[in-house]
């Protein structure tokens, strides 16, 4: 039996990214969301490869992407399903939004501090690309135009930024460190 060389995830992703994004775009109805989901699928498969080898990366990548698209659609449907009847626009302004619990607020502060620690390790351009994509929802083409770089540069920098953030979170978890919002940003977890 002849040995065959298994293509790397990077090779598979770059070779099939266009097809994957088109599939996701048809599923979710948005090219920008499809780009995000494709990158998220890549990152999830990359993380899975760290735990155990993936023998067939192409179908695993596409199935992961489809699952993420279904999750996205379920989340969108759930958010769109919140309908309040018999309430006027003026009445909606009088309804107070519930405040998060102190535990939720503390957790949110920790997640924000952890994200800030991850962002601090990125180059200025990677940080801008990540924030423009994730916070402002700009597509790769829109970011490329705004920053006067190629779409390929945006894709590579976004991939690098997302991987760097994941690696920092994983490293902090492995080292038993957590990020807190207090003055001592990194603290050891107590056993």
TrEMBL record:
GO terms of biological process kind: DNA-templated transcription initiation
Domain RNA polymerase sigma-70 region: 14-78
Cited Gene3D superfamilies: 1.10.1740.10, Winged helix-like DNA-binding domain superfamily/Winged helix DNA-binding domain (1.10.10.10)
Domain of life: Bacteria
Domain (RNA polymerase sigma factor 70 region 4 type) ranges: 115-165
GO MF annotation: an example: sigma factor activity
InterPro entries hit by this protein: RNA_pol_sigma-70-like, RNA_pol_sigma-70_dom, RNA_pol_sigma70_r2, RNA_pol_sigma70_r4_t2, RNA_pol_sigma_r2, RNA_pol_sigma_r3/r4-like, WH-like_DNA-bd_sf
Keywords from the named record: Sigma factor, Transcription, Transcription regulation
Protein family according to the UniProt entry: Belongs to the sigma-70 factor family. ECF subfamily.
Protein known as: RNA polymerase sigma factor (Sigma-70 family)
């Amino acid at each position: 039996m002849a040995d065959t060389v298994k293509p790397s995830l990077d090779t598979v992703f770059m070779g099939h990214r266009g097809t994957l994004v088109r599939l996701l775009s048809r599923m979710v109805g948005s090219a920008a969301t499809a780009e995000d989901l494709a990158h998220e699928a890549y990152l999830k498969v990359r993380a899975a490869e760290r735990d155990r080898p993936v023998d067939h990366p192409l179908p695993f990548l596409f199935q992961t992407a489809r699952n993420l698209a279904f999750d996205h659609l379920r989340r969108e449907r759930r958010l769109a399903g919140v309908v309040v009847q018999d309430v006027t626009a003026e009445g909606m302004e009088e309804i107070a939004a519930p405040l998060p619990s102190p535990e939720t607020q503390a957790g949110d502060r920790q997640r924000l501090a952890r994200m800030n620690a991850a962002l601090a390790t990125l180059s200025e351009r990677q940080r801008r690309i990540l924030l423009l994509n994730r916070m402002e929802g700009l597509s790769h083409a829109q970011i490329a135009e705004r920053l006067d770089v190629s779409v390929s540069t945006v894709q590579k920098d976004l991939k690098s930024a997302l991987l760097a953030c994941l690696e920092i979170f994983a490293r902090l978890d492995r080292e038993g460190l957590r990020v807190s919002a207090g003055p001592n940003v990194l603290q050891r977890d107590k056993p």
